[in-house]
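Researcher: Next entry in the queue.
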Amino acid sequence: MDDHLKQLLAHVVEDVVETGEPVGSQHLVDARKLDVSPATVRNWFVELEEAGYITQPHTSSGRIPTEKGYRFYVDELMPKKTLAKKARQELEEAMAQSSDPTIRAKLFAKKSADLIGNAVLLGLGEADTYYTGLSHLFAQSEFRDWQRMVSLGEALDRMDDILHRARRVTFAEPTALIGAECPFGNACGSILMTLPNATLIGILGPMRLDYARGYALLSALSELMII
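Model: Structure for this entry, 227 residues:
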């Protein structure tokens, strides 16, 4: 993929992650101060669409990334983020309430759900699960669609089984499972990581999950667990 198409795809993904709305050519030119015309951006949109990285949900709307687009962004374009000092401090303060690793993981999950605005899940044992932040998850615009809401609700009803199966794989570092890869439904995105005590932790959101921030949160957990 040409560099200008990579940059444009990154802009589309990051804007949709932030707003939940399709992105138009004029908006990108203005907001990103691109040194090209909206017509040029539309031509690039066509190239990205033909390659399967973005789609136009409605005839008169802008573009949104496809599952393939999010996958390429995470694998090739996503900047590596570190937690802001304030966010890290909030996590440290939350986890300082206990020295028990399981309780500390739950405290981390609860605070992380607030920080990323989505759900955080824990697979703690053979059939022991914990999840928090569902109100954040269901507040996302994607789940205003009734069918998607029902599909996600069915996944939550099977949470023990889903996490049990997911724990058969060791995720040594934060790993994004997007769309069809996501065990919670193809409208979703998730980031999973296995802790040293075999606890599985996951961030769950719509496909437009803020993967960069999620990676930063889970990457910090290994350090925080030994504080």
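Model: The chain is about 50% helix and 15% strand.
Researcher: Noted, moving on.
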